[in-house]
């Protein structure tokens, strides 16, 4: 119990810090609430919730890059990669909304490709690594959709 409480508090604080520091005008409470909801959800619900979180965090990273806040954008991209890995590890045949998660990941990959096209040369390696991971997760989700 203490482990989960500590994990939720630390991850909420990290999301709140990343969002608040970005100056993007977003809602850090909504991101923290979504993260908490995803972590506390049943395993079959987590895939879609993490996909939604990855999508919102990708938008945040794009806003941070456009604002010139490279350090925070890098931190946000690390969180995107972390949540994408959670999707990859948690995809199950009984996941709810698997098709919705796949479509959301596809759109997120397209947005990240757009961000990559506008990014400076120094920012590209991190963006490319994150994009590669998102594409891998999206392909895995698509395979699950076809299996159902």
Number of domains: 1
Return the structural class.
Answer: mainly alpha
Number of helical regions: 6
Average pLDDT across residues?
81
Low-confidence stretches: 2-10, 15-25
Shape descriptor: globular
Task: Please bin the fraction of helical residues.
Answer: over 70%
For the biggest sheet, the summary is:
none
Q: Approximately what portion of the residues adopt beta-strand conformation?
A: under 5%
Annotation, overall tally of beta strands: 0
N-to-C CA distance: 35 Å
- What is the N-to-C order of secondary-structure elements (H for helix, E for strand)? HHHHHH
Radius of gyration: 15 Å
Description:
The chain is built from six helices and no strands. With 148 residues, the protein is mainly α. Mean pLDDT is 81; it is low at 2-10 and 15-25.
Compact overview of the structure:
The protein is 84% helix and 0% strand.
Task: Outline the fold blueprint.
Layout: H1 2-22, H2 28-40, H3 43-66, H4 70-90, H5 98-118, H6 124-147
Helix pairs in contact: 1-2, 1-4, 2-3, 3-4, 3-5, 4-6, 5-6
